[in-house]
Each structure stands twice: as structure tokens, then as C-alpha cells.
Write a structure and sequence with these properties.
The chain folds into three domains: 2-113, Trigger factor ribosome-binding domain (Alpha-Beta Plaits, 2-Layer Sandwich), CATH 3.30.70.1050; 151-245, Chitinase A, domain 3 (Roll), CATH 3.10.50; 280-426, Trigger factor, domain 2 (Orthogonal Bundle). The radius of gyration is 33 Å and the shape is extended. α11 packs across α13 (401-423). Strands 7, 8, 9, 10 and 11 form a five-stranded antiparallel β-sheet that branches. The chain has 427 residues and is of the alpha+beta class. It has 13 helices and 13 strands. β8 and β9 form a beta hairpin.
Length: 427
């Protein structure tokens, strides 16, 4: 085997891999050993026909595909082992260049870590984001606390109206045929929540307990493929009507529901919590704005493989979140009328931005020689041990190497953004 390497477009390297006759013959024979059990040739028990007999009857080409895979799986890793400067970031694209009796030539296009050229990452003006806790934030939190502890009080002397909660049976049909998911009994519906098809809740308003009626709705154009844009009829029966009775906000109520020592103590606590969350939002958004500004001054050719890998990671993360809600990805895609390919396309722009920013972060860390010292790592380990009330040394023994790597990386990233914040103009 012999090979050459040359740069190709979009952060790729082209490896021209030549498999010479002796190596190709060996790959062909290995393919024979792998597949001989499949051949049933007269005069031989199945799987026992010699190599030359199979070749004389079918030709060596019968083993071509498997031989090619065998050769690639052997020689491609050998090339990567020899070319230690190649930082491969995705699967190779392998194409047959030439096929002769005494050799095979393959073109192997390999995506590699791209070169990053940053025009500037210091002295850049970036608009500073700030979030302040308002009295309205505090009052809204108190209202949510009231809502969570509200009681449903039955109403029997009037028709239902917006703001009520009703208990209904419903059965939906299109052109007289019931559709999947369109029927339920004793369903609790908040009127005014707009959780159903447009026009549904508005037509329920005005019904009285025990009343039955049909309502007409039209499914929106962005609904599921089976129902979008279609007219439907729902048969409704109303069983119960409730209104929410909100508790009074008193010191006793606060103590009972939150454990805080009265209204003012609770307000002080939630103000501190809001402030902490705001500081986190400010930090995240300011750091992202800094990276966006640096990204505008950065040139890099990102191979498609890196973007596709990030898209795959994003979809996997979304799939995990769906699992916690009891949903499968394919069921979710069916509900919104999309395919996984549609989802991949919609994620590409964000994935590209994420990859570019990560490359920028890595480049600045390299340029500024930002590192995590052993003392800094030890301090973080100590903090984690104390948070779970464990002895530091005992806690360290239970740590996975990946945990230490995560701590090291988080320290480096924190130091990077401290450096960027100090060396750019936030106003």
C-alpha cells in the first residue's frame, strides 16, 4: 500500500490510496474466506469450494465489494496512524479512482479540523445586557403562588364563560367520520387558555350544565397532515362548571405554603432568587454577544461533517427531553407534520453557529495559553465534596475521570470569558 495527501476545499484532505497487487490479492482472498460458506457448487459440499473454483465460475469480481471494505478497514487506519497531524472530524468519503489488474486507486476525502483565522478578539465594543428585578416581577410571582393554591368552586346557577374551567365530553368528526384523538369524556378545559383548535373554546362559552350541542371549527393550516385545513364538527356535552377561588395573601398563608416568615421575608427571598437568575442570564447573553462579535471577525471553513455531527447531537438532546415528557421523537414529528430530515434542515444554521463559536473558543484558549492549575481543580473538587457533605479525599476516589475533565474544562472556559470581558468594551 502507498498513499499521498493533499489539501482539498472546505477543510478537507484528499488521500490518494493505492492498493498494490499483493495487498489486493490478499484482500480478495480474505473476502473469499468471509463469504465461502454462501457458495453451493456442484461437486463440493456447501461452503467447501476452493478459492480458484469459485473464481473460475463467478470471477474474482464476486468478492470485489467485500475485498474493498476489508482493504479500506485495514489501510485507512494505517494512513491516519502515520499522518499524526491529521485531526479527523468525520467519516471519510471514499471513491474508486482507478481499477487495474495489478492495483486499485482510491480517493479518500477526509474532513479535518479547520484552520481558524480571528481578525480581532480584544478591544471590540459590545452592547452590555442588564436585567433588573422589578416590583412587577415580585407581584407576578405572588400571583402564581395564588394560582397554584387556588380552589375550584362549582358553579350551578349560570352558563359557563371565559375564565371558567369546564368538564365536557367531546367527539370530533370530519365529513361524518371520527378521527384519532378527537374524542374524550369528562375532559377538564380552561376556557380562555386557547389550548384547543381556534373557535372551540369560544363556542363552548355560554353552555349550561347538562346542555349538548354541536360546534363547527376549521383546523389551521399548520396542524397535522391528516387534519390541517379541514372543517370539523364536535359534539359537546357539558357536565360541570368551576371558577377559581384565589387565597388571600397573608403572613399565615406565606408561612404555610413557603416556610418563609411572612410576606416581606418571602418577597426578599424571591427578589434574591430573581437577581441570581438575572445575573446568570446577563452572563450567558453577554458572553454570547461577545462571541457573536468575534465570530463576525473570524474566517473559517467548517467541513459539513462537523455541522452534521452537531445537528445529530442537537436532535439527540431534544429526543431526551421528549422522553422525559413521555413522547417519542417519531410521534412528535408526526404530530407537527415534519420528517427528521425537515428537522435536520431547520437545525443546520444554529449548528453551524455553535460549531464556529466552539472553534473560536478553542483558538483563543490556544493563543492566550489559558489553563486550569491543579490548585484551581482541587478547589472545585473541594467545593463539590462539601456540597454533598463528604470528605474531599473520599469524594475524589469516587470521581470518574470525565468529571475531572469537565471541572478542568469549566475552569478554562470561565477564565476565557473573564479574559474576554476584561479585554473588550461592554457598554
Amino acid at each position: 500500500m502507498k498513499y499521498t495527501c493533499e489539501k482539498a476545499e472546505k477543510s478537507q484532505v484528499k488521500i490518494t490510496l493505492t492498493i498494490e497487487k499483493e495487498d489486493w490479492d490478499k484482500a480478495i482472498y480474505d473476502a473469499y474466506l468471509k463469504n465461502k460458506s454462501k457458495f453451493n457448487i456442484q461437486g463440493f459440499r456447501k461452503g467447501k469450494a476452493p478459492f480458484n473454483v469459485i473464481c473460475s465460475q463467478y470471477g474474482k469480481d464476486v468478492f470485489f465489494e467485500d475485498a474493498l471494505n476489508i482493504a479500506i478497514s485495514k489501510y485507512y487506519p494505517e494512513v491516519l496512524s502515520s499522518e499524526k497531524d491529521l485531526h479527523v472530524v468525520g467519516d471519510p468519503d471514499i471513491r474508486l479512482n482507478d481499477f487495474k489488474e495489478d492495483e486499485i486507486v482510491l480517493d479518500v476525502l477526509v474532513p479535518v479540523m479547520p484552520e481558524v483565522s480571528i481578525e480581532a478578539y480584544k478591544g471590540i465594543k459590545v452592547k452590555k445586557v442588564e436585567y433588573n428585578v422589578t416590583d412587577e416581577d415580585i407581584e407576578n410571582d405572588l400571583k402564581r403562588l395564588q394560582e397554584r393554591n387556588a380552589k375550584d368552586v362549582p358553579v350551578t346557577d349560570r352558563a359557563c364563560q371565559e375564565g371558567d374551567t369546564v368538564v365536557i365530553d367531546f367527539s370530533g368528526s370530519v365529513d361524518g367520520v371520527k378521527f384519532e384523538g378527537g374524542t374524550a369524556e369528562k375532559y377538564r378545559l380552561g376556557l380562555g387558555t386557547h389550548s384547543f383548535v381556534p373557535g372551540f373554546e369560544e363556542q363552548v362559552c355560554g353552555m349550561k350544565i347538562g346542555e349538548e350541542k354541536d360546534i363547527n371549527v376549521k383546523f389551521p393550516d399548520d396542524y397535522t397532515e391528516e387534519l390541517k385545513g379541514k372543517d370539523a364538527v364536535f359534539a359537546i356535552k357539558l357536565h360541570e362548571i368551576f371558577i377559581k377561588e384565589l387565597p388571600e395573601i397573608t403572613d399565615e398563608f406565606i408561612k404555610d405554603k413557603t416556610g418563609e416568615d411572612g410576606i416581606e421575608a418571602y418577597k426578599a427571598k424571591i427578589r434574591a432568587d430573581f437577581d441570581k437568575d438575572n445575573k446568570r442570564r446577563e452572563r450567558d447573553e453577554n458572553e454570547d454577544n461577545l462571541l457573536n462579535a468575534i465570530s463576525d471577525k473570524t474566517t473559517v471553513e467548517i467541513p459539513d461533517a462537523m455541522v452534521e455531527n452537531e445537528v445529530t447531537s442537537m436532535i439527540q438532546q431534544f429526543e431526551y427531553r421528549l422522553m422525559y415528557q413521555g413522547l417519542k421523537l417519531q410521534d412528535y414529528l408526526k404530530m407537527i407534520g415534519q420528517t427528521e430530515e425537515d428537522m435536520r434542515k431547520s437545525y443546520k444554521e444554529t449548528a453551524y453557529s455553535r460549531v464556529k463559536k466552539q472553534l473560536i473558543v478553542n483558538k483563543i484558549i490556544e493563543l492566550e495559553k489559558i489553563e486550569a492549575t491543579q490548585e484551581e481543580i482541587d478547589e472545585k473538587v473541594k467545593e463539590q465534596a462539601e456540597s454533598v457533605a463528604k470528605d474531599v479525599e473520599e469524594y475524589r476516589k469516587t470521581m470518574d475521570p470525565r468529571q475531572l475533565e469537565y471541572i478542568q474544562n469549566s475552569i478554562i472556559v470561565d477564565k476565557l470569558f473573564a479574559f474576554l470581558t476584561a479585554n473588550n468594551i461592554m457598554e
